[in-house]
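Q: Can I borrow your eye for a moment on a structure tokenisation matter? Would you mind producing a protein record, from residues through to fold? Write it directly below this note and I will take it from there.
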Amino acid sequence: MVERRSPKPEVGGSIPSAPAKKKGIMKNPFKFIQEVKQEAFKVTWPTGKETLQGTLMVVAMAIVASLFFLLLDQVLKFLLELILKASF
């Protein structure tokens, strides 16, 4: 059997040296809420300007996509009408 080594010697293999702890039922909901608040403060929230820019980009892309599909629908409708008229 071939021994596989990590490119970084300090990194161990895929088998953990200690098994993961089993997570059971939450015992202290107040501690959980406190930890959630701590994690929320670590988040880098977007500024109002970034949010507005993102919203405008989504709206613009939705308009472009709707116009594309409207045009595609009209072209396919026209081609289908030509095919149906030619068959009779």
Q: What stands out?
A: The two ends are 72 Å apart (CA to CA).
